[in-house]
Amino acid sequence: MSLKEFITKMPKVELHVHLEGAIEPTTLLKLAKEHKVKLPANTVEGLQEWYKFKDFPHFVEIYLTISSCLKSTEDIELITREFLIGQAKQNIRYSEVTYTAYTHYKFRNISFEAQLSAINRARDWAKKEYGITMALIIDIPRSIAPEEGLIVADWVIDAKNDGVVALGLGGPEVGYPPELHKDAFKKILKAGITSIPHAGETMGAESIWGALKDLGASRIGHGVRCLEDTKLVDYLREHQVPLEVCPTSNICLQVAPSLSKHPLPKLLEEGLYITINSDDPPMFNTTLTDEFLRITETFAFSHEEIKKLVLNALNASLLLEKEKKDLLLGFEKDFQNLTIANT
Fold this sequence. Notes:
Helix 5 (73-89) runs parallel beside helix 7 (112-130) and helix 8 packs parallel to helix 9. By secondary structure, the chain is an alpha/beta fold. Helix content is 54%, strand content 13%. The chain has one domain (3-342): Alpha-Beta Barrel (TIM Barrel). Strand 5 (194-199), helix 10 and strand 6 form a beta-alpha-beta unit. The chain is globular. The chain has an eight-stranded parallel β-sheet. It has 16 helices and eight strands.
């Protein structure tokens, strides 16, 4: 069995992927036609070309256009179902999915409760149909006012036992430091909910420190720029704070000039806790499977090194301990079978 086949078939967990950012051009075209939203292209091929990453403003334009095509709970359920079909095809057994509910609440007047119900219908369907599961990280867009962030925090607290596992923080880091929303995170931490903000991607180590100190982060979305501060690296190593690394996304956003110059090997060499993720897969022309294939080809990772990265994600997940243990047993069995097939 080739390493490519091993990676394609192996069981996976994904911790950093955006639901709205995972919408394929075919789905976007369908929604746009239904809601009479004008797109930059009216064919799948044209949209695929438009999806190609150019720069951050273009990325934001795509994201906002996608959001403008989501006008009902039926749309939200549809994109969740199609996302989960894509995860199942990659043998991704469990995903923790970031979702920006506030956008659809503010601009589409869809209540959070209605959004969550739609997503949960899709979650239940995928569990029955494919045997896979997902949970939600509801994020605060950095650019909204702190009082609006508190609304999101209340949603997360109310949905604690209804498929929501954490509060996130997304959007542009520049000009919006983590501490702007510290009150919202203080509130959810008091309620026993996990903090998983994005930090250390387009801003440096100070953003990660802010996420750790002001937001009580248990995991860091991205975090690759921690290498700019040796004390931060020491802290992350000592506390084994998981970093959700998204290699292709980092290259597109010019955090790294190329995959061969990506800091991933250095992060691993420093003994940091690393997971691999796809972020916004269609926008970056990737999938989680592609991410593993690319890093393996570039850095010559072994079967065992790839397996460790997969199990890192499983162990860093917010699954209940029994669920995690059951999934781990299944993963170990699958990896053993793949290893036997490889000998």
